[in-house]
Amino acid sequence: FAASSSPVGCCALLGAGVSGTEGAPRPWRGHQNNAIAVSCSHILKRNRDLTKAWKGKTEQLLRVNEHDFTMRPAFGGPAIPVGVDVQVESLDSISEVDMDFTMTLYLRHYWKDERLSFPSTNNKSMTFDGRLVKKIWVPDVFFVHSKRSFIHDTTTDNIMLRVFPDGHVLYSMRVTVTAMCNMDFSHFPLDSQTCSLELESYAYTDEDLMLYWKNGNESLKTDEKISLSQFLIQKFHTTSRLAFYSSTGWYNRLYINFTLRRHIFFFLLQTYFPATLMVMLSWVSFWIDRRAVPARVSLGITTVLTMSTIITGVNASMPRVSYIKAVDIYLWVSFVFVFLSVLEYAAVNYLTTVQERKERKLRERFPCSCGIPHSKTMMLDGNYSESDANSLAGYTRNQMVPEEEKPEKMVVHLAMSNESNSSRKRGLKGHVGLRIIQNTHAIDKYSRLIFPGTYIFFNLIYWSVFS
After folding, report:
1. Which reaction does it catalyse (predicted)?
2. CB atoms within 10 A of CB 296
3. How far is 275 from 308, CA to CA, in rounded Å?
4. Cα(90)–Cα(224) distance, rounded to whole angstroms?
5. C-alpha to C-alpha distance for 455 and 276, rounded to whole angstroms
6. Which of 37, 155, 199, 407 has the smallest set of CB atoms within 10 Å of its CB?
7. pLDDT digit string (tens) for 221-255?
8. How many CA atoms within 13 Å lie on the side-chain side of 451?
9. Which DSSP string do the residues of 96-109 spell out, in sequence order?
């Protein structure tokens, strides 16, 4: 009976078994007819579900041509509820320059359209691909603030339509969307960003279509393998609210919210650590002799140019925002420290030159005082011994004072020298800052302590505020 694969074939065999060639029944045909009858009843029972045995067109089963599917279900009645759930497949990229993100997801819609109901005994659904979607009504959901989006079409359009006998419909598609994300970079790179993917009906207001999350927060599923190179995905959650347009009205809007926290280790290696090294390198000039002008100048210029390169590289990968970022504060303060180290040597070199010029003028003004020992300048009268006169034997005649004028002029000279020394000591005791300026070694000495201490204090405040 293998040839009897349809109810029509079974009935034909059963009729042939009842009547013989001459109209008289044969004895062995009774058992044969019983077997054929059992087989036929089994095949008829197995093929009774029209969803599996329908040989006509799908449009005839779903009565697509009998209804106007340009209108929404229950047109003129209450708003049709459309449930939505989403499964995020991947979060592809986050762009700070363009301030957007790219996400691939499975978007599913659930609604009921009684025009698509069909008879079925076992309540099994019928599944179709994207070709039937163009012939029936589907929700016109779009992504608000999206820049680019497309439905995957490899190897065919990634669209599924599942219709149940009572008219319930499941409409699923695989979509990749690039949407805008308003980012705040005031704490960059120690920041956290919250982005949202928004879904909304384009044509139907809340009076015609009620868009809602099918299972609340459980309507959003994510793949556990989702990861980003620069961010840690902290949380996914859903919200919904009404959106108002002045010319069209109120619309239901669904939100897919996710929070991202930036990984700091990359920026520590690429930005913070090099900037700190440049600042510390600029302090090396405080230990170099102030007379080594090429060494200290080249070191200062090198550190300044390196800091400028670091600042330029960081800003090149960031949007041109009009406010100050956290990384800008650190880099520009570091740049100021490097620049001040260059100015410090400029001050040291200038004050050294001024001091040497003053000493040169003083030697030119009092040429004889340089040959007299410091202990002898304390003499306040003209009585000096012969050994004192012998100490001046190495001077030429024009440097020596004439013998007849020696007591008077020597007294005057020593008095002026003593008066000058005493007035200078009184001035230095009253002005400690002036002593630091006149002694160029003191500027480098104090810089070795002030620069590192101030920079460490700045780092303590910076990381306590922004971390």
Report:
1. chloride(in) = chloride(out)
2. 23
3. 10
4. 10
5. 9
6. 155
7. 998 888 888 899 988 999 999 999 999 999 999 99
8. 27
9. TTTTEEEEEEEEEE
